[in-house]
Write a structure and sequence with these properties.
Layout (H helix, E strand, L loop, with lengths): L6 H7 L2 H35 L2 H5 L4 H8 L6 H18 L10 H21 L2 H33 L4 H56 L1 E5 L5 E3 L4
Antiparallel strand pairs: 1-2
Helix pairs in contact: 2-7, 2-8, 5-6, 5-8, 6-8, 7-8
C-alpha cells in the first residue's frame, strides 16, 4: 500500500475522531462477518438435521426415531420430538390438576409451540447486530467523510493554497470513509437477508414436523402419507 495515500495515510494523518470512526467501522465489519459465519453454519447444520426427519417416521418406535435424528441436544428437531413425547406422557400420567382442563391436543400443542418459539429465538440471535450494522455503517462512514473534509478544508485555508492538487488528495482520502462504511454495510445487509430466508425455511420445516408429531401423539399416526399412499404409523415409545 502506498504510504502517502489510502487507509494507512487516513489513519496516520487523522485526528482521534477520524481514528475512532475508522476503528468503529472495522469492529462493525468484524462483528458482522463473525455473526454471518456462525449463523450460516447453524443454518447448514439445521438443514442437514432436517433431512433426517423422514427417517424418523420410518422407525419402528420413538426410541429408534430419536436415534435416527442424532444425539445432538441442540438439534431442534430432536428437541421437538422429545418435547412432544414428554408432553403426551405427562398428560397421560398426571392426576387431577389444574392443567387437566386442557385436553391432550391443547397440551401437546402448547409444548410443541414452546419448543418452536425457543428455537426461533436461538435462530434469530445475532441478527440484530447485522441489522444495526447494515443501517448505521453508511452514516458512520459519512460522518467520517464530513469530518475529514472539514479538517482538510481548514488546513487548506490556513495554508492559503487552493489548487486542485492541494484539494484532491485530502478530499479523496476523506471520501474513503464513506466507501468503507458502504463496504461494511453491504455484506451485513446481504447476510441478514440470506439468514432470514434460511431461518424461515428451517422454521417452516419445524412447523410441518410439529404438525405431524401432534397428529401422531393425538391419533397414533402421522397425518402426512408415505410414498405408497398409506398413513405412516409409529409405535409410541
Amino acid at each position: 500500500m502506498n504510504p502517502s495515500f489510502g487507509l494507512w495515510h487516513v489513519w496516520s494523518q487523522g485526528d482521534w475522531i477520524t481514528r475512532g470512526v475508522f476503528t468503529a467501522l472495522v469492529l462493525m465489519s468484524l462483528a458482522s462477518w463473525i455473526v454471518i459465519a456462525i449463523k450460516a453454519l447453524d443454518v447448514v447444520r439445521a438443514k442437514r438435521q432436517a433431512a433426517r426427519v423422514e427417517g424418523f417416521w420410518h422407525s419402528s418406535d420413538m426410541a429408534e426415531g430419536l436415534a435416527k435424528l442424532g444425539d445432538d441436544d441442540a438439534n431442534p428437531f430432536r428437541q421437538l420430538a422429545i418435547e412432544g413425547r414428554e408432553a403426551a406422557a405427562h398428560h397421560r400420567a398426571t392426576k387431577a390438576q389444574l392443567h387437566d382442563s386442557l385436553d391432550a391436543s391443547d397440551w401437546i400443542s402448547r409444548a410443541l409451540r414452546n419448543s418452536i418459539d425457543s428455537t426461533t429465538g436461538e435462530l434469530q440471535a445475532g441478527l440484530a447486530i447485522l441489522a444495526s450494522v447494515g443501517s448505521t455503517a453508511p452514516f458512520v462512514g459519512l460522518f467520517g467523510t464530513v469530518w475529514g473534509i472539514y479538517h482538510a478544508l481548514m488546513k487548506i485555508g490556513a495554508a492559503g493554497q487552493a489548487s486542485i492538487d492541494q484539494v484532491a488528495g485530502p478530499i479523496g482520502e476523506a471520501l474513503i470513509m464513506t466507501a468503507l462504511g458502504l463496504a461494511v454495510a453491504i455484506p451485513a445487509v446481504l447476510g441478514y437477508n440470506a439468514l432470514v430466508r434460511g431461518n424461515k425455511h428451517i422454521l417452516a420445516m419445524l412447523g410441518r414436523f410439529a404438525h405431524d408429531l401432534h397428529a401422531y401423539h393425538v391419533t397414533g399416526a402421522r397425518v402426512t402419507t408415505a410414498s405408497d399412499g398409506n398413513v405412516v404409523s409409529l409405535k409410541r415409545g
